[in-house]
Amino acid sequence: MRKGNDMAKVISIIDYGAGNLRSVANAIKKLGYQPMITSDSREVLDSAAVILPGVGAAADTISSLNKLGMTDVIRQLIQRQRPLFAICVGLQILLSGTEEGGWYECLKVIPGKVKKLPPGFKIPHIGWNQVKQRVSHSIFEGIPDEANFYFVHSFYAEPEDMSVVAGTTSYGVSMCSMVIKDNLIAAQFHPEKSGEHGLRMYANFLKLALNGR
Amino acid sequence: MLTKRIIPCLDVTQGRVVKGTSFTHLRDAGDPVELAAFYYREGADELVFLDIGATPDVRDIMIDIVERVSEQIFIPLTVGGGLRSIEDMRRMLKAGADKVSINTAVVQNPKLITEGAEKFGSQCIVVAIDAKRLESSDGHKWEICTHGGRKSAGIDAIGWAKQAASLGAGELLVTSWDADGQRIGYDLELTRSISEAVTVPVIASGGAGNLEHLYEALTLGKADAVLAATIFHYQINSISEAKDYLAARGIPIRKG
Predict the structure, then answer these.
(1) What is the ipTM of this complex?
(2) Nearest CA to CA, how far is B151 from chain A (Å)?
(3) A116 neighbourhood in chain B, CB within 8 Å
(4) C-alpha–C-alpha distance, residues A23 and B37, integer Å
(5) Superfamily (CATH) of domain B5-248
(6) Do B214 and B246 form a contact (C-beta atoms < 8 A)?
């Protein structure tokens, strides 16, 4: 347990049983950082940077996070403008609600819906697809526009406020694949599985987060 | 646009890569970790590890390999071979695999597909279908085989593919038992029939001998991804050559 000033540089990965936690931790370690894997709300709130991993269903994710009191923690992190990187279903749960399993209420941090990908293409959307950068932001530093990232999902976020949509990807529909709102970064794709561009995105996030304090 | 995936498959037994001994420039081409890192650098879109001599006691070796590979390579990693239970799947995923590929166990107990999908998400569950072509008076069909091809299950491959997808498989890895290792090209009819019968992605496997075969599987065979072992292991072609070739022929491919 680290206390006081030490926390200024702590990078936490929220541990709520998500399948890709280890891959995310491996990517952060590869960049030379030592992440703290934690399910303790205090530790998460005290961290300089937080990563919310995610794979699987939105309802399960929210219920696992709720059991740990983490949905409130996530809301607080965003309210306090703490650097937070949310991945895949971690992005989806931030919207108002999802069509997954009928209709399920989400955290309502980003007004908008999570919708099922349209028919006509293979679902899940699995593989490498391009992210079109809609904004100029240091998270994209060193990453070319329309670089490929690895996706695996059947639902996508549709924020009401287009100004938070930082990246889009085309798969039967032009969908939001990245959200940036203050210090919240959220990606539908998996940077930890997206080769060198993915590692670079995490590096950019951590540089932003750790230098900003 | 979603790109088509090129997936090298590493056959591992007792912790060693079975093929691939011609990589003279690698320190130890039999080391799955070193070979995986090599393919990652070359631009592989994904990797599949197949434990072909899987018995419970050597499974621990595979777990160690998966742990070490996932520390070094940052592309999706699928592990298959001998996985029989939810607990087997959990151990592989926990070690760092992104997906598990299952054949025999889900043919014997299809409910395992649903249980796995509910526990870990559909995206983790790849159902491997090994299909053998059968000629009959009214044309031909494919039946699935299990136990590494040793046993015929007497089940129609297309019907099984539909069932597996509806039970919760996130992807199907379709191997032609007749073409596998023959370098005569994928069984395009098999791949196309399954790809058209399901809405989940289909990975074509078995038979790749040259780059034209990859192209055919992705076009005529309607595959979403191609898996190959021999052409990459024996360096008949490199992954970057394969990608250049496919891109030049108009296939959407990830480069760089």
Answers:
(1) 0.94
(2) 31
(3) none
(4) 15
(5) Aldolase class I (3.20.20.70)
(6) yes
